[in-house]
Design brief:
By secondary structure, the chain is of the alpha/beta class. The protein is built from 14 helices and seven strands. Helix 3 (38-47) packs antiparallel against helix 4 (50-57), helix 9 (141-148) runs parallel beside helix 11 (228-241) and helix 11 packs across helix 13. It is elongated.
């Protein structure tokens, strides 16, 4: 859970403390005598900085009295309070990362070996003791993992060479060095990845059960997912494509204040789908585009967009 999410929970479950302060803030910064419709108020809430927006939302009595049509804000607050014990707002899907060739540049470890060691372990360089702690991260991997951790419940799903007894501990050492405690007690070392229950797996090879993973296998390094930028774009877009329920969209918007980022992600994904249409148009692709357009319209609506030309004509 991020610092902003903790701050949000602390504020929202202690609404009464902020009512007086928020009323004064609104009186000072907004023309309360003028009429704001629901969409205008909602838009003003989210163009304000995060703390002020959260404080305005905390004015339970003000919202109930002046804007009863925004009851969903209060419903979201009650939901957060009910979930306080578990500290979860919305359930996250499980995302697994392979290491070698995905998070880790395996060749960079080989390059750090002496010529003598290379000759001794020729043909089985992955068995060199300590080699897995020597490797550098793949370009963009560290940043991508941190960003995706805001959307998914993340784990490591990797394989260690059977004849390299230091490999498991070396991998944990590498993870700790580059991610701190982000993956503490969230590491699975196995040759049977297909037996692990999860929603997404980012892996570069089909070996060790990756191709039979029960969820979605995102094959890193392929034409479809060539780098971390594209993998991140896809995985973030997946979280919104699967949340097509209006109330869930509104709650996610309040809880994470990701409106602008959401709309940009949806727009980028639409551009990618349109580019695919230029080369290979299919009924399946057309269905995806229509669904994405409908979802984008919903986000625009709850964001308070008033210009008709910004909406897709479906």
């Amino acid at each position: 859970m991020t610092e902003n999410e903790r701050r949000f929970i602390d504020m929202i479950v202690n609404l009464e403390k902020y009512v007086a302060e928020v009323r004064e803030y609104i009186k000072t910064n907004f023309d309360v005598d003028s009429h704001y419709d629901a969409s205008t108020l909602t838009l003003r809430l989210y163009v304000t900085n995060v703390n002020n927006a959260l404080q305005i939302l905390a004015a339970r009595e003000y919202v109930e009295r002046e804007y009863p049509e925004l009851e969903w804000i209060l419903d979201s607050a009650r939901e957060v309070k009910e979930n306080e014990k578990s500290k979860t707002i919305l359930p996250m899907k499980k995302l697994f990362f392979d290491m070698d060739g995905v998070l880790v540049n395996f060749q960079s470890g080989i390059d750090k070996l002496s010529e003598e060691t290379k000759r001794e372990y020729e043909g089985r360089l992955d068995e060199v003791p300590g080699i897995f702690s020597l490797m550098d991260p793949m370009p963009g991997a560290i940043e991508a993992v941190h960003e995706l951790s805001e959307y998914y419940d993340i784990y490591i799903l990797s394989t260690a060479p059977w004849n390299n007894l230091t490999a498991p501990s070396d991998k944990i050492q590498w993870l700790t060095k580059h991610f701190g405690d982000l993956f503490k007690k969230r590491v699975i070392i196995t040759h049977c990845k297909h037996l692990v229950d999860g929603d997404y797996l980012v892996d570069d090879r089909a070996k060790n059960g990756a191709s039979e993973f029960p969820g979605v296998w995102v094959q890193f390094g392929t034409k479809r997912y060539p780098d971390w930028e594209e993998v991140t774009r896809f995985l973030i877009s997946e979280t919104y494509l699967h949340d097509d329920d209006d109330e869930k969209i509104k709650r996610r918007k309040v809880n994470y204040t990701l409106v602008e980022k959401t709309l940009k992600t949806l727009d980028d994904y639409m551009k990618m789908l349109n580019a695919q249409c230029d080369t290979a148009f299919t009924d399946e692709l057309n269905t995806k585009i229509i669904k994405l357009a409908q979802l984008t319209n919903k986000w625009l609506e709850v964001a308070g967009e008033e210009k008709e030309e910004q909406f897709y004509d479906i």
